[in-house]
Amino acid sequence: MLPGGALHPNEPARLRLADLPTPVERVTRLLSRRGIDPDRVPLFVKRDDRTGLGVSGNKVRKLEYLVADAVHGTVNGVGGADTLVTMGGVQSNHCRATAAVAARLGLKSRLVLRGADPREQEPPMAWGGNLLLDELFGGEVSFHDAKEYNGDREAMLMRVLGGVKQAGGVPYFFGTGGSVSLGSWGYVRCVYELAAQLDTAGWSGPVDLFCCVGSCGTHAGCVVGRALAGLADWRVVGVPVAGTAKTMSDGTRELVDETSAEFELGLTETDTPVEVLDGFVGPGYSIPTPQGDAAVRDAAATEGLVLDPTYTGKTMAGVLHAMSTGFVRDGAAVVFLHSGGAFGLMGSV
Q1: At what angle do helices 181-200 and 59-72 cross, to 10 degrees?
Q2: How far apart are CA 294 and CA 301, in angstroms?
Q3: Are 175 and 87 in contact (CB under 8 A)?
């Protein structure tokens, strides 16, 4: 790390929004329940569900960089935005975190959501989970069916941004999950933080770090962070929770390469291997699986650890499978990156 806390001469500026560092905890009873010897293969949990701002999980690390650019123009040289505009599913953790950050900073948020308004369904349903928090944080939301959301997305977003401008606002847009090259720096920094914590805890051996892969930003940031920090004996493994393994791997590869190019990091594909562990998506994104649900229940019952069925439950199912089948390297510590999402649990398991 450079003087002043910078990771790299080209690291962009950030607003300090998250409660950092998040804790690292060792898990033993969960492993014992699954018949895994916790003394043979240590399992640590990086508690990024505890970043603050309304239990915002992994998204707030990315927002530290994105909102710095929105307000101060740290990357694009514009700044002055007063409305954060983003998109995601009806129960998007990222949209909820964006609304929370906007409220904290006295900004507005405009959230473009994929799916139907629960109040217009038959029978009508109350707003709950992340959607309720969007409202409490003052977010302005609109609902869009799959045809519109996945179709001419550019035209849809131009209408949204035009509406903000027409109302006198200055919008700043970032896509699903904040998973763009600028946002990826949140998890570059997380890897440095985690390495220092494991060192303090006395672990100096190899590390197999597992994270969820959805919009690819967290995975890409961890891959870049491993390379920049010179952690040659670390391995970063993404567990896809949407799409296909190839789609997720390709998405991460693209974002890693974009981040390296945009910020002139000089990283090659050899420096930044992208690895995914397939088999835990199930029928599709946001559809619970028996393995994921079992991981949610076991983690809660043995460790008081709250996971969710869409992201972290499926990821933990992958981690436990990897630990019990020899996928994990001999002599390596396993780290599960807990990226949050507890509000997605309500009524799902």
Answers
A1: 130
A2: 10
A3: yes
Which CATH number is 82-169 given?
Answer: 3.40.50.1100
φ/ψ of 6, rounded to 5, equals: -70, 145
Active-site amino acid positions = 92
Pairing of strands 275-276, 171-173: unpaired
Query: Is the separation of the CB atoms in 43 and 33 below 8 Å?
Result: no
Q: Are 87 and 115 in contact (CB under 8 A)?
A: no
In whole angstroms, give the CA distance from residue 1 to residue 17: 20
pLDDT digits (tens, 9 = 90+) for 176-202: 999 999 999 999 999 999 999 999 999
pTM score, whole prediction? 0.95
CATH of 3-57+180-345, one of 3.40.640.10, 3.40.50.1100, 3.40.1390.30, 3.40.50.300: 3.40.50.1100
Q: What is the pLDDT of residue 30?
A: 98
| pLDDT < 50 positions in the chain | 347-349
- For residue 117, list its beta bridge partners: none
89, 113 Cβ separation under 8 angstroms: yes
Rounded Cα gap, residues 47 and 57, in angstroms: 9
pLDDT in the model for residue 346? 67
All structural domains of the chain with their residue ranges: 3-57+180-345, 82-169
Report residue 238 as tokens. Answer: 């993404």
Q: How many helices (H) and strands (E) does the chain have?
A: 11, 10
